[in-house]
Amino acid sequence: MIRHAALLALMATAAQAEAPVSGYAFMQPETQALQDDAFANPGMLWVDLGRELWNRPEASGDSCAGCHGGPETLRGVGARYPAWSATEGRVVSLEQQINLCREGRQQAVPLPYGSRELLALSALVMHQSLGLPQAVATDGPAAEAYVRGRDYFETRRGQLNLSCANCHVEQAGSRLRGETISQGQVNGFPIYRQLWQDIGSAGRMIAWCNEAVRATQLEEGSPMAVELELYLRARGNGLAIESPAVRR
Amino acid sequence: MFNTRILVPETAKAGESVEIRVMIMHPMDTGFTFTTQGERIPVDIITDFTCTYLDEEVVHIRLAPGLSANPLFSFRLRAERTGTVAFRWVDQHGAVTTDDATLTVT
Amino acid sequence: MILSRRTALLGLAATILPLPVWATPEEVAAEIVKLFGSTPLEDGPITIDLPALAETGNSVPMTVAVESPMTADDRITRLAVFAEQNPRPLSCEVRFGPMAAEPRLVTNIRLAATQTVVCVAEHSDGRLMAARADVRVVVGACTALPGRY
Which letter, b or e, does each residue of A184-204 get, where b requires 16 or more Cβ atoms within 10 Å of its Cβ? Predict the structure, then answer.
């Protein structure tokens, strides 16, 4: 009870709804230096692989390059995802848009979520928007998805009975064991995460966070997961895209 | 075959100490991690890395699971004359990955 | 990605049971003898650049350099890095060939816990030199989950 009261007092004093701050600011200098090193940033291995895949013809004979030209023609595109898809009638993540292109234009099988190839392509596309402000649209047909994403973010869940906001809004900047709690911004995704020793999408991070609060899995690519990513991206609109960012 | 990144400067002066950087995509599994289904992931590492310049050795590195995933190395060679800087990785299954670059010495 | 209660418990047990048994300084000493022979270790001009505090033990940036003219008969021939508290202490062993300009290596190492890192360098005349560096490894917030997510 005493501990609970202390926690409540802490939460009351914690700063609320401040300006967005990238997860980069919560990393130690060594991790920041690794992200800033254009050669040694491990995420660049996936960007390189993505460039190879970009030029590889699929079943239809078309490669990504066949329609788009060089990957740099997509500068600014990644910064707008997840985005409303008129043909799908729903909000789609960048990973889903890549698979829609594969199925529709290249007559290729969709790449599984979490696969090295899908992450390589999404890292390549997001990397083209490096330094551009995140600019996810939340008006028009995406407005309802945004509200659902926000509701998910603010709803307590799991055995630990914590919402995303409990930690990443109310306690952002506080210490939790050896770490400082970040705002949960996703402007660096796909990220190379040292804990995973691998690259991962925002969808993987959402699954991981749900596991951390012992909640029901939110499967990557499910409508709720994409709408949550839309909300997460939108609340960080204006932050510079850092993909592939390096996080602990 | 694994995705590699190598950084060899295009030119150098004779006698100069030249920094070479390499990174290779590899999980370097330690044998102490588990899948989400609780199954142990066996040891899977690159065991040896060699860099040669003018067909002579610069470094030979024996890797252990104590190195991070996607191992990164940076070291220095002495520029003598224009020639090939060659890289060779071998994993525990004997699979070989190679890469090379030309260093022009002025 | 779906985790059943049983596998979750199995995974949890795996994190509690002392599966990766830590090495001891004595085992590191034995490992050094195995690699370099039993020549006594001297202090030497070895510089180990490691952060005093690492926020993740999965990748700690390290630079090791030994002062040496690297001539044919006055050179460093080998360098090895050991982490005393890792389940397997050896991080890597480097042999410097005739084309190496400096006995210097930059890499990222894994550290299982707060501990001392030992570097051993072998001189061409057979002398062995050693240096040590201490690193505190931070225990993160949500890092104790079993398995890969």
Answer: bbbbbbbbbbbbbbbbbbbbb
